[in-house]
Design a protein that fits this description.
Blueprint lengths: L1 H10 L14 E10 L2 E15 L6 E8 L2 E8 L5 E8 L28
Antiparallel strand pairs: 1-2, 1-5, 2-3, 3-4
Length: 117
């Protein structure tokens, strides 16, 4: 009974147009940033290394290299701060979590591209 009530409450917070991407995809995440009264959109580009949760608690982690340092950021898929998620490249991976990319440097971080026709 209580689970049904929780599901009904979550329905209002879910996005209708959930972005379609998979682990290993290179994505551009457009994030709304509030600076005082102004709002701007900042793009965070990187590889999706993990997905977790379900419903309104569904999250994904994006990793990128900035000035030779690895940066990871977690985003909630249904957050109103996420303007959109664009897939720029798809990769073929055989794992659900790509944490092994943390230990790799340079060309070793490349993933095999998935061809879609």
């Amino acid at each position: 009974m209580s689970q049904k009530l929780l599901d009904l409450a979550e329905q209002s917070s879910l996005k209708e147009d959930k972005p379609q991407f998979e682990i290993g995809d290179t994505v551009d995440v457009h994030v709304r940033i509030l600076e005082g009264e102004k709002e701007r959109i900042q793009v965070f580009s990187g590889v999706v290394i993990a997905m977790s949760g379900s419903g309104t608690r569904e999250m994904f982690s994006v990793r990128r290299i900035v000035a030779g340092e690895g940066v990871e950021r977690k985003f909630a898929i249904h957050s109103p701060r996420i303007a959109k998620v664009e897939v720029t490249r798809s990769s073929h991976v055989r794992r659900a979590k790509l944490y092994f990319l943390r230990d790799r440097v340079g060309k070793a971080t490349r993933l095999k591209e998935r061809r879609r026709s």
